[in-house]
Specification:
heterodimer, A: 361 residues, three-stranded antiparallel beta sheet, B: 3 helices, rod-shaped
Chain lengths: 361, 166
Amino acid sequence: MYRNRLIKILVLLLFVITNTVSAQEFTEENNSDEKDIKVEIKEYINHHLLDSYDFGLFSWTTDEGEHKHFGFPLPVILIDGGLKVFSSSKFHHGETVAEVDGNYYKVFHNKIYKTDAAGTITLDDHQHPTNTKPLDFSITKNVTVIFLVGLFMFFMFSRMAKSYQKNNLMPTGFGRMLEPIIMYIRDDIAIPNIGKKHYKKYMSYLLTVFFFVWIINLLGLTPLGVNVTNNIAVTFALALITYLLTTFTANKNYWKHIFWMPGVPGPMKIILAPIELLGTIIKPFSLMIRLYANITAGHIVLMSIIGLMFIFKSWIGSPLSFGLAFALALLELLVAALQAYIFTMLSALYFGSAVEEHDDH
Amino acid sequence: MDKLIEQFSLGLFFWQLILFVGLVLLLKKFAWGPILKSVGEREEGIKDALDEAENARKEMQNLNADNARILKEARIERDTLLKEAREMKEGIIAEAKEEAQVQANKVVEQAQATIQSEKQAAIADLKNQVAELSIGIAEKVVRGELADKSKQEKLVEDMLKEVTIS
């Protein structure tokens, strides 16, 4: 609710500013030029929100209209009548058709499609390509970032664990800052929600998911242009693990409360059962959507405001949108931690309901 | 929703699942397990130390109470000892006094007896000496008296008179 209202207010603000400022400044300018920039920014944002097959750090356009990219290619792994592994540099940033073992592939809207040698993509009425899509297990930019973050976390926390042994059960250095966070997750998230008896088996997951989401979200705010948590696939995977953990560690009580709710009359039990059953799926589903939507919305708004600077090109608009972008970036820093906290907190809550023992009714 | 499903990438999902589960397992073994264990041990240690301090404090209190009790007992014993000693002293003194009195009385009595006997002896002696002296004087007188005959007779006569009177 809060976020929605915030976004509405921001959009309204932008609307007012764009109208007044552009009315003053751009009346005599060429209208089509302005349109071009807007379209380009919109495309850039859409592109940014999607995964990509190479690790582009930044790109620019030369005066001759040629696109230059700075980054490195990543391996593409396709299952299409056998395993096909090749470098993404073959696509030339989606501009050319890649030829592997006599098959031709082309990137269209950040997805790989099988095409003919000329790279024709046929679209249906809804602008969806009709070309076949090979099974795609490529090491994309997001996969690389996930891997690097995992590596980073592993080194950071295993070093921290070792420092305990060396320093008489006290962490050293940065670990001193991390320990209160770990303690917070244990004492204020896991124990109150799951209970002292069962919380231990969930601790590894809760800690990992919190730090993973937090670090990934923070990375999304850096100018590196990585944005992992606004991929529905990533949040789906996380929510799925929460769902599976809840389902497979649940005790008899949990299932009893779903299929045969105690304390309500017979016919109600029959009505409640499918609702409760659906509820078990909706809970992790909301986790998935919440994280995805928050981070995506943050990125879109932030990038739109940054994009406004290029549209305004004025002495009033640009500093204004810079200020807005700065304030929003600070807010996003908070959101990055908040979303990690909420994900962990709600996961703990669901685990708690799965192992809850109530003999009192 | 349509766009979401279209955007869903199976490859990314697959890698995220594999990498994340791997990360959870790795961190569990090499990081969270040891960290939580160390923290648990540390908390346990702190709790034990606090308990120990509390026990020590209680023991100290007990010791103090014991000390006070022992001190009190010692004082009472000292008092009784002093009292006994005083009583004994007084007893001894009284006894000694009594004995001394008795002894003194005895000595005085003996002295008196001695004095008495000495006195008797002295008196007897004196009597004897007086008698001897009287006899001597009498002899001399007699000798002088008896020098002439008349005097002898007079003397006999006087003496006879005297004897009859006394």
